[in-house]
Amino acid sequence: MSYIVFSISGNKTLANEVAKSLHGELGRIYKKTFADGEIMVKSASDVKGKDVVIVQSTSKNVNEELFSLLLLLDSVNRSGAKSVKLFMPYFAYSRQERVSWTNEPVSCEVVAKLVDTAEFNDLTCFDLHHPVIESFFKHKVSNKPTTSLFAKYYEAYFKANNIKKEDVVIVSPDHGSNTRAEMLSKALNGVKIVILDKVRPQANRAEHLEINGEEIKNKVCILIDDIIDTGGTICSATKLILAKGAQKVLVSATHAVLSKGCVRRLKKAKVSDLVVTNTIEKNLDSFIKVLDILPLVLEEIQ
Question: Which of 50, 85, 144, 198 is catalytic?
Fold first, then answer.
């Protein structure tokens, strides 16, 4: 196959590595903003008869990124691409997948319908916030877990720090993360799981209820979630877990949104280790470990 790989802005480094791994070409993009604010996005590379791969998360300037992606998809299809594989490692609006307050839209479904208007063969996302999101699309959608990456990381961490698995507990910060916790537990050969109940009084604020301290006392706790944004959920959970006698708290999350001040708050909450993936590419504090999703992307292509 003759591959050509594009990324508009969200995952340029990852797209470059995908192109190298496939012995393909890194596609060039022409983008222009007109005086009235309208934009033009098109392929500046010849895609006729080629298999196109587009890797584009929507995490910063999200609305412009979404529309730019739609224009690029139209461009490559009109230009004769043989096939189009779309990767959206981080899918925007995924936390707005249901109605939580009166008169709210289901924004995630609206975005899914917009993406569905484009022509592509299949779509791959990583650790979507909720399984229901897949049902919002008419296209084939693969919701790929990153569990294998985190399991490998923690196996090495345990070995390097002389930690026995019987001294480890995986903590789900709320019931929405149960599946992720269960998958990691299975990958680590049955490490125990504890679930925290959470009430959220308003957006971007989280409070946690009490838990039985005997379940986590003197344990190394792994807090797992799909997204770290403001850090409110993780900081609240970390403080509770440490107050109940845990040895230390390790945090893992697929998508590093990391809004301003988040890393400082995590350090202040005494998170001992933070590991994320590169679904969102950004310059990160040296405190944060980053796992590469490249092998998982290649699995979906090859």
Answer: 198
